[in-house]
Request: fold
Amino acid sequence: MNFLSSTILSGILYDGFKTGAKLTVSFLKENLQGWLFDDAMLEQLARNLQALELEELADYRIEKKINESPEILECIREIKSNQNIDSVIQSHTGSGDNVVGNKTVNNN
Reply:
């Protein structure tokens, strides 16, 4: 299971700041749909991020600040992807492909 990366988080924050969003627990919850996290940990993450005052920074500077904070890195490592494709049940009738994941095509 993959954990949230500083690159993904910085992109979410940067896009939110561009639209005037405030960094709150609600903002993080809304934008981390598809990820699994504990509410207490998310509150800690929000406090740590707010302390960095990231609102006026460019996306690469936000990522750099996040990477410089061991507390934030520990929090985002605990946020796991909710995607699980270990088993997929599909029904397929008709023509065409029914692919889950990556498809490799060899055109010789």
About this structure: The chain has a mean pLDDT of 84. The longest strand covers residues 35-36. Helices lie at 6-18, 25-31, 39-51, 59-67, 70-77.
